[in-house]
Amino acid sequence: MEGYETGLVKAHDGGRNVVYTCEKEGADAKILRIAFLPDRSREDFLGELEYIRYLFEHGGSVSDVVSSRKGNLLEEITHNHHIFFISLFKKAKGKMLVENNYQYREGAPITEYYYNCGKVLGKLHQISKEYTPIHRRYSFFDKYNAEYIDKLIPDSLSPLKEKLVELLNTLEGVDRNKETFGLNHFDYNDGNYSIDFDTGQITVYDSIILVTVGICLTWPVSGETEWAGYNLNQTPVNVKSLWRIILKQSSQDTDLRARSKIRCWIHCPCLFKQTSWRIL
Question: Closest Cα partner for 218 from 171, 259, 172?
Answer without folding.
Answer: 259
